[in-house]
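so i finally got all the pieces together for this one. its three components total, 985 residues if u count the protein bits. some of the lines might not be protein, just check the labels. i wanna see the whole assembly predicted at once instead of chain by chain like last time, that was a mess tbh
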Amino acid sequence: MKAGLYISGIGHLALIGWILFGGMFQRFEEPTFQAADVSILTEEEFAALSQPTPVEAPETAVDVTPPEAPAEDAAPVMPAADEAPETPDTPEAEAPMPPQEAPDISEADPLPQPQVDPDAPVTPAPPSQEGTTIVTEVAPRPAPRASDRVAPVPVAPSEPDTEIAETLQDAVQPDENGETVEEEQEATAPEEATTRIVTEHEQEETAEVASFAPVSSRRPPARPARPARRVETPRETPAPNPLADVINDAVEEANANAASTRPAPAGPPLSRGEKDALRLAVQQCWNVGSLSSEALRTTVVVAVSMGRDGRPDSGSIRMLNATGGSDGAARQAYEAARRAILRCGARGYNLPTDKYNQWQEIEITFNPERMRIK
Amino acid sequence: MNLLRKLTSVLALTLVFSAGAQSAFAQESRGPLRIEITEGVIEPLPFAVPDFVPDSAAATELAQQIGRVVAADLEGTGLFREIGKEAFIANVTSFDSPVQYADWRAINAQALITGAVSVTRGGRVTVKFRLFDVFSGQEMGSGLQLGGTTASWRRLAHKVADTVYSRITGEGPYFDSRVVFVSESGPKDNRRKRLAIMDYDGANVQFLTDSSSIVLAPRFSPAGDRVLYTSYETGFPRIYLLDVSSVQRRELGAQEGTMTFAPRFSPDGNRVVYSLSAGGNTDIYVLDIRSGTPQRLTSAPSIETAPSFSPDGRQIVFESDRSGSPQLYIMSASGGEARRISFGPGRYGTPVWSPRGDLIAFTKQNQGRFHIGVMRLDGSEERLLTASFLDEGPTWSPNGRVIMFMRETAGAGGVASLYSVDISGRNLRRIDTGGAASDPSWSPLLP
Amino acid sequence: MRHLKKTFLVVALLGLGACTSPGQYGNSNGANMDGSDASNPSSPAYFSQTVGDRVLFVVNQSSLTDEARETLNGQAVWLNANPEYDALIEGHADERGTREYNLALGARRANAVQEYLLSKGIAASRLQVVSYGKERPVAICSDDTCYSQNRRAVTVISAGGLSS
């Protein structure tokens, strides 16, 4: 009798634990990241986003500050050769990046959004060591690559003829025999980047340190190529447990009850993945490269109101708070933050419409502490 | 089974209550969504400079040249990237016509600079420009109009670029400035050296002395009107004061039987701090330019040299080998006790105080390599920006953001050139002076 | 009188000649053998080629080596025997250092030579020092075979001062 009680007690405890905690894991989703929209706006819609009033013929420039010519160097000892203003050479010349081309302006049917996992940069697979012959040459340690662009996620230089966009896309050619009809797309790749600024001194340092990693090894047999480098739109992973349905129903009911006082349903709170997606999206456009060192010590909190389509209302962007710098530095930091919000939000952020009330008002803290002299 | 179902519904209800309570709680205190961004990107900001609009055919070439210099200045900082004209969708044909922001957004130009140039008879040039924040769809600040002579058109272009640079980055301007340096020629064992002056970007090189005697390490005055340097024209190294506009010079602080070198101005331009070598010992002295009276600041049997004032004129950083090898020290501008600030491996020299007052740039020599580096006033946060066979002699841009220095290549055919690097270590660039060059010194911003 | 002094000097110097090492000042300088001048023991050519007009230093040092002292002994003797000549001592450094410090180092080296010569009885009024830092190398390759030649103090003789 007592044994049975114990067994069922433990079983129930286990069940409770599993329900409480197992449910959490099931609700975790892949972070979705989409900054490049497939649906394309018309010119009018796009223009309608900006200030509705066109800039009238502005009055002629306000300030008149004539810099007088400096006192000419009188009679230099020897006549000098007049130098042409040559732009000095840039020692680190990476693969040249093609200029941006205008996108096609035409309405397109909304297609299943191709999602690409942003955490898979195009880097060559490191030589695998499992079950391969190891060549014992001493390999030069890869030196940190200096690049014009520094971003949290390192990106290898892309093929020369790929456009620069926020996400990775393969070129899609219409396949005559293909069953699926997909729109032709240009190959795009994120702009190449490294994770930190590399000074000449650091490059030299790491080049000198030889590593004992094997120079080469036999590669494992390649996986059969997948038809398209795309990840399916993440679906809600089906709950294998029928109990979850019960719980879901109950939760929705509770929410509905609580929300009945509110005009619009708020839905469940934004998942961490959705918040991360927003954060990553804004991050990509937050360019601190042109901020002064004082502005890089200033943290600003910026508020913005969003439209239902995920686009920020540019008139609503305002600075709530600034710490760590003078007013001028705060202004600079705020402008960079504002640019970030507007640029990456130009086509709308990928936020769930059914949770609109959760993200209608957003406060973003821009803290550049980790970006200082990386 | 029935029991199980009852239990689970009880559990579900408890869960629901907590969830409901949570959501209710969230409902009541639900404020805006809050996220924190701590990582961003560092990339050159793309900008576009359509050709400046000339008001007449006579101004066409000048308008184009001014636009090119503005673009080169910005791109030369490494913080901006110009979008070439071939990518433009729209074109600016009139300075006052409204900006089609969508056209510039489409090519990802984040900043747009439009301008107009007019030339009058009598050699006067007027430049107007406006700066636009494309993605915000509005002008950044108000437009400016600048005037000058045709001969000084480059200065006008630099002033335009300075305004754009300052508005976007928040840094102080620095393009409208000059650099005095030593122009070199000839083989390594018979170098001909002469003083020269140029725009910071290498244009308008002019000579201030001939090459009949060795000249070294010229330094600009705080007002940019005079230059101190060391010359061997008497057969001994002596310091001279040269007036840039009249090219007249006079000797300073000479004492029989001594050598003087490494002079630098005080921030008020009235005093000169320098090194004097007598009896084999080198110490630091300061003299008042008007009275000429020298005052000794250090008296140690070791070598004390390469002094540099702080921007407030109260302290001096210098190089001394009193510890056995050359290191950096800071003392009061009236002399006295000095505290050491360099502690890394190797030998430290040529310290220069940043115009912002918070950093010291220096030359470091370690294991056969030379580096240009910066450190805080207490020696912390030492960062080496460059590495090569021979780098030395850093000088700061007027806004304290860029360091220019000399780099000499190895070998019998080694030559020296001027390089600049951003304080972050990025954007290392060679400056074309039309020949070999060394010992640069950056002027303050020209008024 | 003078001739007696000179013959005496020649004899003395011949005796000392074995002690000086001709390789002191490198390879390039010994090539110019002007027979008539160098054979005259009172000529500057003799001074620079036979007596040895330069001493070398260890990197970053300004102390005199034993070799240096020997050469300087010879210089002192010559200078004492030829009072109509003054000497300008040039101090130099190799290129592996910063400009101002090398000027100061060259001054130290020149001063070390000057003090030694003073201790050998040369009048102070006959001696001057100058430093060229790294501005006047004699060897321009970028390794220590050249650097070592540049770390030097050179005693340059010039006619001037009292002529007795």
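Helices of chain C lie at 2-17, 35-39, 44-52, 66-81, 99-119, 144-150.
Chain C has one domain: 50-164.
anyway lmk what u think
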